[in-house]
């Protein structure tokens, strides 16, 4: 999952970004409201963490303008203010949640998970694809009951594929949601990680869950229907 963090205080931004990356999220950081709004307009984020008090444009303006162009990306607003009126204002202009500083990092993670589960239907914390089970809260992957050890980036990739089970996911979509803005689009990094996942998830199993659609992308399938690849 790719997150945009808009925070002007360097130490706070660095600490939050480090913590989120350790939790397997890809994180882009913007240091002011204008930069945050621009990045939100040119990238496809899964969630935005938006400080209220920002230079150039405050978070309330940024949130309102993101919503004005029709974006439904989940937004969590952060503020040192604890006034009820400010929380109401943030929610009224389109924020999905609100946290007052200082806050517990694990509470932020829980609120993020809750928002990321939402969609047209509420998504479970457990994703099952045939005998593959992914616990998105604990970030544990098992196949046929056996836990599979994964790096943070391998986990991010399999979770993204699992959230789009049965769909063709192209390289551009993977780079946008699993890697951050430093990703080199000309590298073969995605292919390398897909091969790693195949070795860890599919080797030794008759049913191969990770398929390649030539010229299009990758599919995680439960094998319930034939996919021409």
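^ structure tokens above, recovered residues below v
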């Amino acid at each position: 999952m790719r997150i945009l963090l808009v925070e002007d205080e360097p130490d706070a931004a660095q600490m939050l970004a480090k913590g989120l990356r350790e939790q397997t999220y890809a994180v882009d950081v913007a240091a002011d409201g204008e930069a945050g709004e621009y990045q939100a307009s040119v990238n496809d984020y899964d969630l935005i963490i938006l400080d209220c008090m920002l230079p150039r444009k405050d978070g309330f303006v940024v949130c309102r303008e993101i919503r004005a162009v029709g974006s439904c990306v989940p937004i969590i607003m952060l503020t040192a203010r604890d006034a009820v009126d400010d929380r109401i204002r943030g929610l009224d202009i389109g924020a999905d949640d609100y946290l007052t500083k200082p806050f517990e990092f694990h509470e932020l993670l829980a609120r993020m998970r809750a928002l990321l589960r939402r969609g047209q239907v509420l998504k479970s914390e457990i994703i099952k694809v045939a005998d593959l089970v992914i616990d998105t809260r604990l970030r544990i992957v098992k196949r046929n009951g056996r836990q599979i050890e994964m790096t943070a980036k391998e986990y991010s990739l399999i979770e993204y594929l699992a959230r789009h089970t049965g769909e063709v996911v192209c390289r551009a979509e993977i780079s946008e949601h699993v890697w951050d803005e430093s990703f080199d689009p000309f590298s073969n990094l995605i292919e390398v990680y897909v091969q790693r996942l195949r070795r860890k998830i599919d080797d030794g199993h008759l049913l191969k869950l990770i398929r390649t659609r030539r010229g299009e992308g990758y599919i995680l399938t439960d094998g319930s229907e034939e996919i021409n690849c």
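The helical segments are 10-22, 33-42, 59-68, 84-92, 105-117, 152-162, 171-178, 189-202.
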